[in-house]
Design brief:
The chain has about 675 residues and is α+β, with helices and mostly antiparallel strands. The chain is about 50% helix and about 15% strand. The protein is built from 24 helices and 23 strands. The strands form five sheets. Strands 11-23-22-21-12-19-20 form a seven-stranded mixed sheet, with helices on both faces. A six-stranded antiparallel sheet has the order 4-3-5-10-6-9, with no helix packed on it. It has a six-stranded antiparallel sheet with strand order 13-18-17-16-15-14, sandwiched between helices. Helix 11 runs parallel beside helix 24. It is elongated and about 115 Å long. About 50% of the residues are buried.
């Protein structure tokens, strides 16, 4: 990757990816970045980036010219001037290129100001001053690009994680192919310590896989084969985490055979790399503010320079001095540091977040995350494990447990809801006979339950509140009483009706996540003042889980539209985040200041809908994301203050006589200062 990406081209790979991020193959992404960086300074001279090498040559030729003119009085005048002209060439070449590019896009930036000032110095015969100006500017610009490339490389490195070749099993024999040739259904062989070439699921072998590059998990995760290969193939998103694999992760000591579920351009790593790169182009609120400031400030500076050129009309001084002062003011007032103050921090923050398994989709999300005062959590799969289990089966009068579970398993087998998966899994385990009844025509009644046809009769499964509404007969007293008792114990309940008979009630419990309390404590320390749970489950169940994880506030019995209304109400009081799975909670997340999805590595929908995606299904990444965003916001403010402060100092100083040389040193120094200050984010630790 380039060490010399131009400051004016900070978008780099992001510019190329933003229009179609989700469908760009990872190998094409790498090619585009390499091509773009070659066009913008990847060439090297003397082992250095070309722009930096030219800046150094400018300094050398400037020093030679100055030495000859000072130490050799008898030397002809053209000799030191030749050194200065060479310094003009080496120091001005990249500056001239940037100025021409800016002119083509009708942008007026400091590159143009520097060239005008240097040309003015030459016209006045001050070749040494003009050469010094271009040398200092080109050196500062080159060092700035070199520093920014550190953050760029952190993002570009994502494109290097996936291997270019894969060993695919064809007719039982290993064949070496390019990863882009892999198709869904191929079986790849991954040897110990190799990087995985594609997303998929394990069909043979056991190993521990280092998934840090995708999920940010610091400890390798034990993996094993799927139990039912055919079922895994038909529902790849439902494959258990212990069998699911991601391209670009590193295999441990066991050989694995993995069935490919996504082509290389659709892998999680490919999407993350593209989305992170595209995030560079998203402007934060501070950046939009500084852009607006520049649009007003730059014309005012030009007007001031024009007035200074008219100084000889009112005071007795040569035009050459007025011209020199005007050029010095233009250099001093150029908001170069301000222009890069926010993008450099956003780039570094997004890159650090990606290394930690957190996808932050742009500067706006990064800044907003750092201003949060409230967080709303979904219950199932967020504060709880999302792996509920059956704890109680209470048949109604005239029914038995076997009949109740047979109907429940048949209907819920058609659903992909976490509760449905638990009913099928645990229900089959409780049945003595095989669960071979087949339901059809599943209809989801959002937030309430489901219904389906089973052997010519309608079967209903859902909350107690579903019954007695929309023409359905209310539950019988025994089932209603059983539900009340289970809810008092904090159980999630569902009633089962088949035809016109109540078959009974199933009670379930979801285990709170390990470390949920510690996570909430960390968030409070970071300044989150209000945290609450919002759930579609019964209020008493939600309150029981909230109390167990350490939340003081819980709201239950919420339909999806109720969750949206809750978030909108909270947003009126403070900036609020909604943490959920990014799928069922997408409407509420869209209304929040920041939508945060958990476990996004296995969900395309979560990657697309969330503003911030925690790639691992782990709450511990949330305090890291909030802390990093708060630090990023602090550094952005520091950079803006330094940038504006330097302009406020230099403009009056140059009006009252400060020369162009010192002004350039201080100007470029402030620019480098804000860049290196932003790079501190790359070393952020909790």
């Amino acid at each position: 990757m380039s060490d010399g990406v131009s400051n004016g081209e900070q978008g780099s790979g992001a510019i190329l990816l933003a229009t179609n991020a989700a469908n760009i193959p990872l190998e094409n992404y790498k090619d585009m970045i390499e091509k773009h960086n070659h066009e913008h300074g990847d060439a090297r001279l003397f082992g250095l980036p070309m722009e930096l090498a030219f800046a150094i040559l400018s300094g050398i030729t400037l020093a030679v010219g100055f030495a000859v003119g000072t130490l050799v009085p008898s030397a002809p005048n053209w000799l030191p001037v030749s050194g200065y002209v060479a310094a003009y060439f080496f120091g001005g070449l990249f500056t001239l290129r940037e100025a021409i590019e800016n002119a083509l896009y009708r942008r007026f930036k400091i590159d143009s100001l520097m060239l005008v000032a240097a040309a003015g110095a030459a016209i006045l015969g001050e070749f040494a001053e003009g050469a010094l100006l271009l040398f200092l500017f080109s050196l500062g610009h080159a060092l700035e690009s070199f520093a920014m490339s550190r953050a760029k490389r952190s993002i570009d490195a994502l494109a290097e994680l996936a291997p270019e070749r894969a060993t695919v099993l064809r007719n039982g024999s290993p064949v070496d192919v390019a990863v882009e040739e892999l198709v869904v259904g191929d079986v790849v062989l991954v040897r110990p310590n190799e990087r995985l070439p594609a997303d998929g699921f394990i069909i043979k072998g056991q190993s521990a896989i280092n998934q840090a590059s995708v999920t940010g998990e610091s400890i390798p995760v034990d993996k094993r084969p799927v139990e039912d290969r055919a079922a895994a193939r038909t529902a790849t998103d439902a494959v258990d985490e212990v069998s699911r694999t991601f391209a670009g992760t590193i295999n441990g000591m066991g050989a694995l055979e993995i069935e490919v579920t996504r082509r290389s351009n659709e892998s999680t790593l490919s999407k993350v790399a593209a989305l992170v790169a595209a995030a560079e182009t998203e402007r934060s609120p501070t950046q939009r503010m500084t852009d607006k400031f520049e649009r007003i400030f730059v014309p005012l500076v030009l007007l001031l320079a024009a007035l200074l050129l008219c100084a000889p009309l009112v005071i007795d001084e040569p035009f050459s001095e007025s011209f020199y002062r005007a050029m010095a003011v233009l250099v001093a007032a150029s908001p170069c540091a301000l222009a890069i103050a926010t993008p450099s921090a956003v780039l570094s923050g997004v890159a650090r977040a990606a290394r930690g398994g957190v996808l932050v989709k742009g500067g706006a999300a990064l800044e907003d995350l750092g201003t949060l005062k409230a967080i709303a959590f979904d219950k199932t799969g967020t504060l709880t494990e999302g792996r509920p289990r059956i704890t109680d089966v209470i048949p109604a009068m005239g029914a038995n447990e076997s009949e109740l579970l047979q109907v429940a398993v048949a209907v819920e087998a058609l659903s992909d809801h976490p509760l449905a998966e638990a009913v099928v899994r645990d229900g089959k385990a409780r049945l003595d006979a095989p669960a071979d009844r087949k339901a059809e025509g599943l209809e989801s009644l959002t937030g309430r339950g489901v219904k389906a046809m089973l052997e010519g009769e309608t079967a209903w499964i859902g909350k107690a509140e579903m019954f007695g509404a929309d023409g359905l007969e209310p539950l019988g007293t025994p089932s209603a009483d059983a539900i009340e008792k289970l809810r008092d114990k904090g159980r999630t309940t569902m009633a089962v009706r088949y035809g016109g008979r109540d078959l009974g009630v199933i009670g379930m419990m979801d285990t709170p996540r390990d470390g949920a309390q510690e996570t909430l404590t960390e968030l409070r320390k970071l300044g989150i003042e209000r945290m609450l749970m919002i759930s579609g489950d019964h209020a008493r169940v939600a309150e029981a889980v909230a109390a167990e994880v350490g939340l003081d506030e819980a709201r239950g019995d919420l339909m999806p539209e109720d969750k949206v209304a809750t978030i909108e109400a909270l947003s009126q009081e403070a900036k609020v985040a909604m943490v959920g799975d990014g799928v069922n909670d997408a409407p509420a997340m869209a209304r929040a200041t920041v939508g945060i999805a958990m476990g996004a590595a296995g969900s395309d929908v979560a990657l697309e809908t969330a503003d911030v995606a925690l790639m691992a299904d782990d709450l511990h990444h949330l305090p890291f994301a909030v802390g990093l965003s708060r630090k990023s916001r602090s550094i952005i403010r520091q950079n803006v203050y330094v940038s504006l402060g330097m302009v406020a100092l230099l403009v009056p100083a140059t009006i009252f006589g400060l020369g162009i040389g010192p002004a350039v040193i201080m100007h470029e120094g402030s620019t480098l200062l804000v860049v290196f200050n932003a790079l501190r984010l790359l070393r952020y630790e909790r």
